[in-house]
Design goal:
Elements (H helix, E strand, L loop, with lengths): L3 H7 L8 H15 L6 H10 L2 E7 L4 E6 L4 E4 L15 H12 L5 H10 L2 E7 L4 E6 L4 E5 L8
Antiparallel strand pairs: 1-2, 1-4, 2-3, 4-5, 5-6
Helix pairs in contact: 2-3, 4-5
Length: 154
Amino acid sequence: MTNATTDAATGHGPTGTGAIDRLRAAMDRGAALRPRVGGFPHLAESLRQAGVTHCRMAVPANAFLYLTEHGNVVVQGEPLVTGFAVAPPFDRPALEAALRADQAGLTAFPEFVRGCWEAGVVWYEVDLLARTCTYHGADGASYREDYPAVTLPA
Protein backbone atom coordinates (compact mmCIF):
# COMPACT_ATOMS: atom_id res chain seq x y z
CA MET A 1 0.00 0.00 0.00
CA THR A 2 1.33 3.44 -0.93
CA ASN A 3 1.42 6.19 1.67
CA ALA A 4 0.29 9.36 -0.16
CA THR A 5 1.64 11.62 2.60
CA THR A 6 5.10 10.10 2.39
CA ASP A 7 5.04 10.23 -1.40
CA ALA A 8 4.02 13.90 -1.43
CA ALA A 9 6.62 14.81 1.16
CA THR A 10 9.52 13.08 -0.57
CA GLY A 11 8.54 13.42 -4.20
CA HIS A 12 8.99 9.66 -4.55
CA GLY A 13 5.73 8.41 -5.99
CA PRO A 14 4.97 5.11 -7.65
CA THR A 15 7.46 5.98 -10.41
CA GLY A 16 10.23 6.90 -7.93
CA THR A 17 10.94 10.21 -9.65
CA GLY A 18 12.12 12.24 -6.66
CA ALA A 19 10.73 15.53 -8.03
CA ILE A 20 11.33 17.38 -4.76
CA ASP A 21 14.92 16.14 -4.44
CA ARG A 22 15.63 17.14 -8.04
CA LEU A 23 14.09 20.58 -7.54
CA ARG A 24 16.05 21.19 -4.33
CA ALA A 25 19.31 20.14 -5.98
CA ALA A 26 18.65 22.43 -8.96
CA MET A 27 17.80 25.34 -6.65
CA ASP A 28 20.97 24.77 -4.62
CA ARG A 29 23.07 24.58 -7.79
CA GLY A 30 21.45 27.71 -9.22
CA ALA A 31 22.00 29.62 -5.98
CA ALA A 32 25.67 28.58 -5.88
CA LEU A 33 26.27 29.66 -9.49
CA ARG A 34 24.12 32.79 -9.41
CA PRO A 35 26.08 36.05 -9.57
CA ARG A 36 24.77 38.85 -7.38
CA VAL A 37 24.02 41.10 -10.36
CA GLY A 38 21.87 39.65 -13.13
CA GLY A 39 21.66 36.30 -11.39
CA PHE A 40 18.14 35.14 -12.17
CA PRO A 41 18.95 33.62 -15.60
CA HIS A 42 21.52 31.35 -13.90
CA LEU A 43 18.97 30.04 -11.41
CA ALA A 44 16.41 29.62 -14.20
CA GLU A 45 18.88 27.68 -16.34
CA SER A 46 19.70 25.34 -13.46
CA LEU A 47 15.98 24.69 -13.00
CA ARG A 48 15.46 24.19 -16.75
CA GLN A 49 18.31 21.68 -16.92
CA ALA A 50 16.67 19.75 -14.06
CA GLY A 51 13.42 19.42 -16.02
CA VAL A 52 11.41 22.39 -14.71
CA THR A 53 9.30 23.83 -17.51
CA HIS A 54 7.24 26.48 -15.67
CA CYS A 55 7.25 28.17 -12.31
CA ARG A 56 4.08 29.88 -11.10
CA MET A 57 4.07 32.16 -8.06
CA ALA A 58 0.94 33.25 -6.18
CA VAL A 59 2.42 36.45 -4.78
CA PRO A 60 0.20 37.29 -1.75
CA ALA A 61 0.35 33.63 -0.65
CA ASN A 62 4.09 33.43 -1.42
CA ALA A 63 3.44 29.98 -2.89
CA PHE A 64 5.24 28.45 -5.86
CA LEU A 65 4.09 25.72 -8.20
CA TYR A 66 6.94 24.17 -10.19
CA LEU A 67 5.84 22.17 -13.24
CA THR A 68 8.53 19.60 -13.96
CA GLU A 69 9.15 16.55 -16.12
CA HIS A 70 9.47 14.52 -12.91
CA GLY A 71 6.29 15.64 -11.14
CA ASN A 72 4.84 18.96 -10.02
CA VAL A 73 6.02 20.47 -6.76
CA VAL A 74 4.47 23.11 -4.50
CA VAL A 75 6.68 25.25 -2.24
CA GLN A 76 4.88 27.31 0.40
CA GLY A 77 6.70 30.34 1.77
CA GLU A 78 5.61 32.77 4.46
CA PRO A 79 2.43 34.49 3.17
CA LEU A 80 2.62 38.24 2.56
CA VAL A 81 -0.96 38.73 3.74
CA THR A 82 -3.31 36.82 5.99
CA GLY A 83 -7.05 37.14 6.24
CA PHE A 84 -8.67 39.71 3.97
CA ALA A 85 -6.62 42.24 1.98
CA VAL A 86 -7.29 44.58 -0.90
CA ALA A 87 -5.20 43.73 -3.94
CA PRO A 88 -3.16 46.78 -4.93
CA PRO A 89 -3.76 48.18 -8.43
CA PHE A 90 -1.30 47.05 -11.10
CA ASP A 91 1.51 49.62 -11.33
CA ARG A 92 3.87 48.81 -14.19
CA PRO A 93 6.47 51.50 -13.34
CA ALA A 94 6.64 50.22 -9.75
CA LEU A 95 7.00 46.64 -11.03
CA GLU A 96 9.77 47.65 -13.40
CA ALA A 97 11.54 49.42 -10.52
CA ALA A 98 11.32 46.23 -8.41
CA LEU A 99 12.65 44.19 -11.34
CA ARG A 100 15.57 46.54 -12.01
CA ALA A 101 16.53 46.63 -8.31
CA ASP A 102 16.52 42.82 -8.22
CA GLN A 103 18.47 42.56 -11.48
CA ALA A 104 21.06 45.00 -10.09
CA GLY A 105 21.50 42.83 -7.00
CA LEU A 106 20.06 45.51 -4.70
CA THR A 107 17.35 43.32 -3.19
CA ALA A 108 17.05 39.78 -1.88
CA PHE A 109 14.18 37.59 -3.01
CA PRO A 110 11.78 38.48 -0.14
CA GLU A 111 12.13 42.19 -0.96
CA PHE A 112 11.55 41.45 -4.64
CA VAL A 113 8.34 39.56 -3.86
CA ARG A 114 7.17 42.39 -1.58
CA GLY A 115 7.92 44.88 -4.39
CA CYS A 116 5.85 42.79 -6.82
CA TRP A 117 2.92 42.76 -4.38
CA GLU A 118 3.16 46.51 -3.79
CA ALA A 119 3.16 46.96 -7.59
CA GLY A 120 -0.12 45.04 -7.80
CA VAL A 121 1.23 41.70 -9.03
CA VAL A 122 -0.98 38.89 -7.77
CA TRP A 123 0.77 36.10 -9.67
CA TYR A 124 3.60 35.59 -12.08
CA GLU A 125 4.79 32.80 -14.32
CA VAL A 126 8.25 31.93 -15.52
CA ASP A 127 8.31 29.92 -18.73
CA LEU A 128 11.73 28.29 -18.60
CA LEU A 129 11.50 26.99 -22.16
CA ALA A 130 10.58 30.35 -23.73
CA ARG A 131 12.75 32.24 -21.17
CA THR A 132 10.00 34.69 -20.22
CA CYS A 133 8.55 36.07 -16.99
CA THR A 134 4.97 37.35 -17.09
CA TYR A 135 3.55 39.35 -14.17
CA HIS A 136 -0.23 39.60 -13.72
CA GLY A 137 -2.42 42.04 -11.82
CA ALA A 138 -5.85 41.31 -10.38
CA ASP A 139 -7.51 43.44 -13.08
CA GLY A 140 -6.04 41.39 -15.94
CA ALA A 141 -3.15 43.76 -16.72
CA SER A 142 0.17 42.06 -17.33
CA TYR A 143 3.79 42.73 -18.15
CA ARG A 144 6.22 40.29 -19.78
CA GLU A 145 9.99 40.31 -19.93
CA ASP A 146 12.38 37.99 -21.68
CA TYR A 147 15.54 36.95 -19.90
CA PRO A 148 18.78 35.90 -21.61
CA ALA A 149 20.04 32.37 -22.12
CA VAL A 150 23.16 31.58 -20.09
CA THR A 151 25.64 28.71 -20.09
CA LEU A 152 26.32 27.14 -16.73
CA PRO A 153 29.65 25.52 -15.91
CA ALA A 154 29.62 21.73 -15.91
